[in-house]
Design goal:
Pnp Oxidase, Chain A; single chain
Length: 173
């Protein structure tokens, strides 16, 4: 496909459905976790596949960026939990530069949630429990498995609008 054909093809693709949910930032709770959980419930009710999947962006010490898809493990006072091997690329990058950004995207609802902040290691016990509770767990141990929590400094909720009057609601913590 030529560049001009690609451009025409991309421009012709539809953006969002006409019947997206509404969102009034004036009615948003003070706690972004509460709003996220409400939106997650709505994504589950709407049948969004893997609504707990998110893109995690990290950077190494030199600022070279990378991103990949992960699964949210939990959300509590420590932050937004995810896990990986400490020896993986993301594990090494988080050791060098313990900051990250998550992005959840639910196309059918025209919604995304962006979370950015510092990442902390959770306990060895919590990491071992997370490893053991995976659906494919076989009882083996994995000493490199690490459960992390992203403690947000910023959370932004975005609601698409078919008329391109998108709504953003940002929390700075």
């Amino acid at each position: 496909m030529s560049n001009s054909n690609l451009r025409r093809t991309l421009r012709a693709l539809p953006d969002f459905a006409e019947n997206l949910p509404g969102f009034d930032p004036e009615q948003a709770p003070e706690d972004p976790a509460e709003l996220f959980l409400a939106w997650l419930d709505e994504a589950l009710a709407a049948g969004v596949p893997q609504p707990h999947a998110f893109s995690l962006a990290t950077a190494d010490a030199a600022g070279n960026l990378s991103s990949r898809m992960l699964i949210l493990k939990n959300l509590d006072g420590d932050g937004w939990h995810f896990a990986t091997s400490r020896t993986s690329r993301k594990g090494r990058e988080l050791e060098e530069n313990p900051r990250a950004a998550m992005n959840f995207y639910w196309h059918g609802l025209g919604r995304q949630v962006r979370v950015a902040g510092n990442v902390v290691l959770l306990s060895a016990e919590a990491s071992a429990r997370d490893w053991a509770e995976r659906p494919a767990a076989d009882g083996s141990e994995n000493p490199d498995w690490q459960l992390y929590a992203l403690a947000p400094r910023e959370v932004e909720f975005w609601q698409a609008d078919p008329g391109r009057r998108h709504i953003r609601h940002r929390y700075v913590l």
